## 1
Amino acid sequence: MTKQKEIFTPKDPENNKVCIYVCGVTSYDDSHVGHARTSVIFNVLVRKQCLLLFCWYLSHLGYEVIYVRNMTDIDDKIIDNGYAYEVEGDVYFSVDKISDYGRLSGQKVEDNQLGKRVAIDPRKKNPADFTLWKVAKPSKPSWDRPWSSRRPEWHIECSAMSAHYLTSSFDIHGGGTDLIFPHHENKIAQSSAACSKAKVSYWMHNDHMTKDENMEEERSNSAKAQIAYDVQNRVSKLHNDFECKMSDDLHTPEFLKSGLQNALRFINNTLDMVKKIIKPLQKKPQPSVFQSFDALESKIKELLKILGLLWSPSYLEILESLKEKALKRANIKLDYALQKIEERAEARKHKDYLKADEIR
Ligand SMILES: [Zn+2]
């Protein structure tokens, strides 16, 4: 409630006993790995023993722990105490009856977000009022109440259950941050309406599981490291395969069929993996992945050259090398040559053929 970390002191320090209540997942859609987070976090905090005989944290600190997780139970005191009203069989909690409603979440009754998840019910006295009981539906479980057959709404389950097992006043109440409002706020309201002594000493909320950019970066980096390692392995495999096949009666076709083909297949498969794993994680293409292949490419070229199978350099490469040789012979730099070519073209344009010839 103070929105700060506090030193934990149990309500019953003499017996070193800690009473904890944790709300389970409220799932609106298909289950996903994030739903397990609350269970895992509070299990780490609480669980005494698992199959591996780990000693979990609170037990490790020497506490006797009473840990309750939710299911459904019922209580009528709220309506009897005048905190609730009935409309057409449904029972609503009146938030105006609680002076500090919103203390846990920091939400104000005026600007709360009701109606965002559920359309506002015009029968409510205040739009922030929440349902305690609904008229029973034939297909849903219900309980016979003094007024009629009804089913309890979401928030009341937890209040009833924690009060039943831990009394209305206990040490730690946990759950996901998505439950702070309205669920836990409403739980405080209805628990204090049912029992003036109701009090939770500490609220503990776990955050959602998020897709962490660093995690993705790490995944991408480890994939890159794996590729670099695999390429190195492939280079030495290729080299060994070449020497082995060639030493054994110059088995050139054998080498081309096995070693070389495997190397090419490796490149294809790895590029597929790069497309699937690394590329979607990165906004900009990263040259380092492709640099990993350089060593393998050089090795393949080297072996093909030995076998006389590597085509001579491309025309572009031939022209490049001729150009380099010519510049070297004339002892000039490329920039100077280009400048002279331009000057000659300019001279020809002005019909200054003497100058143009001289430059040539
Ligand atoms: Zn709950």
## 2
Amino acid sequence: MGWEKAVAVSELPENSRKVVTLKGNKILLLHQQGEIYAVDNRCPHMKLPLKNGKVTAEGAIICPFHRSAFELSTGQVAHWTPWPPVVGNLMAMASQPKALPTYATKVEDGSIFVNL
Ligand code: FES
């Protein structure tokens, strides 16, 4: 674990997001409600990209594929593969819910750093 410089703060204004590659991992940075989050860009369900996932008012990101939802601050599963109807429930039964990896962030000298 160590702090990796990701982007300049100015590159991630409020309500924006950006995917960066750090130590070979695709990390999704989000600036939401005054907080900067860093999460794995791959959904733990089928490793598909989360980049275009909607963020709820409660601070969870919803995977655009089967709508699993994960808390941005902790990565905890809020919902596991509820979509599409019937098929989503079958997929949920066939797999164990897995948390989304999250990483600490800090702002220093005008840059965003991620601890990974
Ligand atoms: S790939 Fe994200 S919920 Fe299936």
